[in-house]
Amino acid sequence: MILPNDFLSEMKNIFNESDYDLFLKHYNDHCFKGLRVNTLKINPEKFKKIFEYKLKVSPFCENGFYIDENVEKLGKHPLHHAGAFYLQEPSASFAVTVLAPKPYDKILDLCAAPGGKTTQIAEKLKGTGLIWANEFIKNRTSSLISNIERLGIKNAVVSSCSTDIICKKLAGFFDKVLVDAPCSGEGMFRKNPKAILEWSKEYVKSCTTRQLEILENAKYALKKDGFLVYSTCTFSLEENEDVIRKFLEKNKNFELCEIKTNLARPAICSPQSSALNLNFAKRITPIENGEGHFFAKLQKKFLSDEDLSLKEALPYKYRKEEKTIFNAQKLYSELFNSSIYGNLEKFRDYYFILPQSLPDLKGLNVLRAGVLFCEDKKTYTIPCHAAFMAAKHEEINQKINFNLNSKEIRSFLKGEELKVDSDLKGFVAVLVENMTVGFGKISNGKLKNKYPKGLRNN
To answer: Which domains, from first to last, does the chain contain?
Structure first.
C-alpha cells in the first residue's frame, strides 16, 4: 500500500522509532473484519451454534467478534436480515464500551449514520430509556433507519438536524452524548483505499475545524455530571489530542476522565498540555489489533453560564386518544399478545408506537420516532415491516418459523410467494430460527410476500 509522504511524516511524530516500524509492518496486513451479535434478538451462545462461520472473540465490546477476512456477502445472510448481527470493525465498537450506556439512560448519538454505534447503545439500554440518533447529512439517514428497524429497536428517535440547533433545543436533556466525529479517515486506509486519494493536510485542517464546532455544540445537550465521548477513526494529532486540548482549555466545566484499559495505548500528552492529562484518552492502532481510532471521555462537572441561559427541553405532549386509533389498536391485538409498549399516535397516514419520555420534537427535523406500526387505509389498517421486526417470537399470535438453511427462507428473502402447509389465515410473521425476518398474508395455503422490495436478496 502506497501511503502519502505527509501522512508518513505525521506517523513518525506519533510513534517512536520501533513502534513506527511495527506500525508499517502491520499496515501491510489485511484489515480487520468483524460483527456484533444483537442481544435484543439472540444470545451469543445460540448465535455461535447456528452461524456457519468461525468467530474469534473481540476484546473491544461484549458480544463482538472477529470474522475471517475472506467471508463475503454477509449482508445477504438470513441472520443479517433477521437483525441477529451488525457488521462492525471490532475496534470501532470500543467507543460505546467507553460510553458505558446503562438501562434508562437518555443518550444522544450526534453523528449517527449508518447506525453501528446507535444500535450498540440500544442493545445496552435493553428497551428502556431513549437513544436519539442524529445525522446531519439527510441522504445517509435511510441506512440508519433501516438498521434500527432491522435490529428491532423500539426506543429510538432519528433526526437530521444541525448540531447547533438540536443541542440547544435539547439543552441538558441527555445523560450521555457520543460524538463519533467526521474525520479524515486515516484509520480506514486499509479498509477503504479510496480514502487515501481524498486525504491531504488541508483536509485534516478542515476536519479539525468541524470537529471542534460539533463538540462545542454537543456540550449543551448534556446534563450536569453527564458524560461525553469523542471518537474518531483517524491517527491525526490535530483531529484528536489537539481538538480535546482546545475544548478543555475553553470549557473549564468539563474534565477528562481516564479510560482504564490495556487494550489501547495512551494518547499523546505534550509538555504544554501535561496539566490536562491527555494521556487519559486512548488510541487503537493496527498494533493493538484494530484499525485506527481515538477515544476521549469527558464529564460535565458543573453548568456554565451558557448552559444556564438556555431553556430546558420541554417534554413531548402525547396526543389524547383519537377516534381513528381504534382500528390500529384492534390490529395490534390481532397480531400480538403483549400490551402496546409505548404511545400509539397517528402522523399523516401512519401509526407509530412512540417511546416514553420523549422531549418536544418540534423544529428538529425528526424522520422517525419509535416503531412504524401500521398504515391507515381509512376503512382498515395494514401492518408495517418494522412492527414485526420489533416483536419477539413469543409475542406474536400467528407465525411460521423456518430453519436457517431451508429453501423457504431463501425464497422469502427474494420476495417470492410461498406455499405453506398451514391452516393460518391473514397476516403471519415469518421467522428464521425464532427471529422475525418479515411477514406475509396467507390465503388458501399461499403466503403473499410482504418483505420490502428494497431489502430483498437478488
So the answer is: 325-455 (3.10.450.720)
Q: Are 346 and 324 in contact (CB under 8 A)?
A: yes
- Burial bucket for residue 70 (CB in 10 Å: 0-12, 13-18, 19+): exposed
Is 328:340 a contact under the CB 8 Å cutoff?
A: no
pLDDT of residue 423: 85
Q: Grid coordinates 420541554 are at which residue? A: 314
If the chain, 458 residues long, is cut into consecutive pieces of 10 residues, what is the mean pLDDT of each piece? 89 91 88 96 97 97 95 96 97 98 98 98 98 97 98 98 98 98 94 89 97 98 98 96 96 97 93 82 95 97 96 90 83 96 94 95 98 93 97 97 96 96 91 98 95 96
Q: What are the φ/ψ torsions at residue 242 (nearest 5 degrees)?
A: -65, -40
Question: Residue 382: helix, strand or coil by DSSP?
Answer: strand
The grid coordinates of residue 231 equal 471518537
Rounded CA separation 184/288 (Å)? 21
Give dist(CA 162, CA 136) in Å, integer: 6
Give the up-direction half-sphere exposure of residue 231: CA atoms within 13 A in the CB hemisphere: 26
Residue positions annotated with a catalytic role: 233
Give Cβ neighbours of residue 136 (< 8 Å, ≥ 6 apart).
Answer: 111, 160, 161, 162, 163
Residue 395 backbone phi and psi in degrees, to 5? -90, -10
**Cβ atoms within 10 Å, residue 246:** 16
**Nearest 10 degrees: CA dihedral of 232, 233, 236, 237?**
40
| Closest listed residue to residue 106, CA positions, set 230, 256, 223 | 223
Q: Are 441 and 447 in contact (CB under 8 A)?
A: yes
Q: In whole angstroms, give the CA distance from residue 189 to residue 186.
A: 6
